Sequence to fold (647 residues):
Amino acid sequence: MSGQYTVSASPAAREEGAVTQTVASLPATFGPAPESRQGTADVLVVAGGPGWTTEALHAVAAGARGVVVANPAPEDTTELAAAVDAAGTAVVLDLRWASNPALVAEGSAPDARDAVRSALGSASLLDSVATAAPGTDPQRLLGEHLAALLAVSGPLDGVSLLRSDATGYTVAGRLANGAPFTAQGVLTAARPAAVDIRLYTADGGVSVQVPDPDAAWPAEVRVTGAHGELLLPTLYESAHRSAWRRLKDHLGAGTRPDDLAGFARLTDLYATLAAT
Amino acid sequence: MSQQAASQHAAPADRPLLGVGILGAGPVTQAIHLPALARLQDILEVRHIMDVDAAVASSVAARVGATAGTSMAALLDDPAVDVVAICSPHQFHADQVIAACRAGKKAVLCEKPFAMNAEEAARISAVSSETGVPIVVGAMHTFDPGWLAAEQNWGDLPGQVHTIRSSIVLPPNARFEDFATEIVTRPAAGRPDYSDPDVIKSALRGGIMGLAIHDLPLVRRFTPDFTDLEVLQVFHVRPFGYAVSLRTPTRVIELRAVMNGTWKPEWTFEAIGDDAALHIDFTPSYVQAGSAVATLTRGNGSDTRTFGPYGHNGYEGEWRELAGLARGTRQAPAAQTLIDDLTFALAIADATAASAGAGHAGAAEKAGVTP
Fold:
């Protein structure tokens, strides 16, 4: 093993987060922990199914320097956040679409978040569709969808669940300027899983198309205005690798990511929806 | 302007041209129908144009060497007119369709919607049956070669569709009208007062009957239980548009439209099932930019078949259909289909306006950018 930090993942986490191939793409930084040190690896990977915060607490208690949560479902992170603060652990959330580097870039690189937020003042409509395979839990899909939306948008107000069934869901609400926002989940095997976000403004808008993270196909972000259309730089990096690269940066710099704080917005919104 | 002399066009003996008369010479006639007909001069010839504004009628008719006038009766009495196109304001459509049928014309094209209520639709249907005059409603996307090719190839798709989406993003009409022709006497654009809930209701109704209606026959094609509609949500979109969520017992229908200052049109229709999906990108109206491109997908997108673009759009397609009907080489569309399309559109328009009136109007008032 040549990596600087050892990594251990349960089989479920390894599959959910494509851990083996992702870690292999950062070989100078990460490497698999030997069998004898699985429980005490530098980085522990947790599968993000229900109860993941408890498992993450165990990882923090075990002394992990970093924790990666593969595709976490909305869940109260208050206790985990407190434990992380006390231990100084770097917790990175590897989100299905929201972790795509085209949505939120490092540093001053152009990204979808800046493109969308700078256009929200003149927004007419935000319309989004998430696609996933039949059999997907619509509630789980909705969490992944909302995570992507929250990554790029400002606050979403008055959000309500209009329908949810075996074919998908429809959610509606309003943007900060009062313009409507709609989000639809569609379950089909006819198309690859992805999320599509369209913001329409007074003279154009922003379109964001984010593929699944099981390959490094790039997201596509286009800004349309009086100038024409601008395609933001394509980034051939999956959401998984982007999450791990952020962990690398934080471990190297001794800083801590704010993923849990951002995730609390999703959890709050999700709880609001569950009550509708 | 005085009524000009009757049409003097000579028809070739071997394959006579069909004479076209047009009621209403506004931007749709100028920027859509005349350019489409200019591409079909081997089968159709514009011979008579009527408009309530004599100057407009005269100017537009002069472009194509047709007779001009302000009288519907004169146009219907003109023996040079075989096919009548009704491009007048919506409220005149029903009476004019009926008059054209009673005048014994060979075929009638009526811009959508062909009636404003079910009673009018029933009257039209009865007169069409009685006179035998075929009627085509100008739902141009149903005549688009891209749509027609998809229909020929979609197999079991209609039975498995669960989600239908129509999304229309357009600049104001003038942008594309000016690409298509030189408009005379464009109607003044209004500045609606969206602080008035009734104005919003009217805008929503207008959005459904004037914009969504282009695709509602397509939506209905995939909605067997279209008479059992439920409105889930209605948003008014500024400066003009709508976001309407509907469902039937077996289908989810999402309608979106934004008319803003963009230069980039997007006009898509999607029908999505468990294992197959149809996606269509339509070209904007007014410009002669060829047909839609239809894509049928299966297998996680790996099995894809694309149809189009073909060389002409749905407007030209509907004129070709009319010529075929007038010559008796094509079968008239079933009156029930036209009535069902209309009642479906009216049901959505009514439910949308009612939903806005029942509580969404106040919220809509605050929504979006200032027009």
In short: The helical segments of chain A are 11-16, 19-24, 52-61, 78-87, 112-117, 138-152, 239-253, 259-274. Chain A has two domains: 5-97+239-257, 112-231. Chain A is about 30% helix and 30% strand. Chain A touches chain B at residues 122-125, 127, 129, 133-134, 162-163, 167-168, 170, 172, 174, 177-180, 182, 184, 186-192, 200-205, 224, 226, 228-229 (CB under 8 Å).
